[in-house]
């Protein structure tokens, strides 16, 4: 956020969303379980776009598609909280 404005910068929005998505994925799968993780966050003209690609060779009982969807939602929640002035990231949304 800038000194004269409480509105987050586009860069802060992108960084916050990406960090929350990565944190959620790594809370569900260990880093050694993840073959590939790609988090793309864009924020243009007030529109947030989040895309999460997750490749886990042996997911066990966990559904990688569900985890990727949850990660995208966590990114959106984190950005919402950023705009509300709450900078604490809670990946589970509690």
Structure description:
This protein has a single domain, classed as MTH677-like (GMP Synthetase, Chain A, domain 3, 2-Layer Sandwich), CATH 3.30.300.100. The protein has helices spanning 10-28, 64-84, and strands at residues 36-44, 47-55. A hairpin with a 2-residue loop joins β1 (36-44) and β2 (47-55). The chain starts with 9 loop residues before the first helix and ends in a 10-residue tail after the last helix. By secondary structure, it is α+β, with helices and mostly antiparallel strands.
Quick structural overview:
With 94 residues, this protein is α+β, with helices and mostly antiparallel strands. The protein has 2 helices and 2 strands. It has a two-stranded antiparallel sheet with strand order 1-2.
């Amino acid at each position: 956020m800038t000194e004269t404005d409480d509105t987050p910068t586009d860069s802060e929005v992108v960084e916050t969303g990406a960090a929350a998505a990565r944190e959620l994925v790594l809370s569900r799968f260990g880093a050694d379980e993840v073959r590939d993780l790609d988090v793309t966050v864009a924020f243009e003209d007030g529109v947030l776009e989040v895309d999460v690609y997750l490749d886990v060779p042996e997911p066990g009982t966990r559904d990688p598609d569900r985890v990727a969807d949850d990660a995208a939602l966590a990114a959106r929640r984190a950005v919402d909280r950023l705009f509300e002035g709450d900078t604490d990231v809670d990946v589970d949304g509690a």
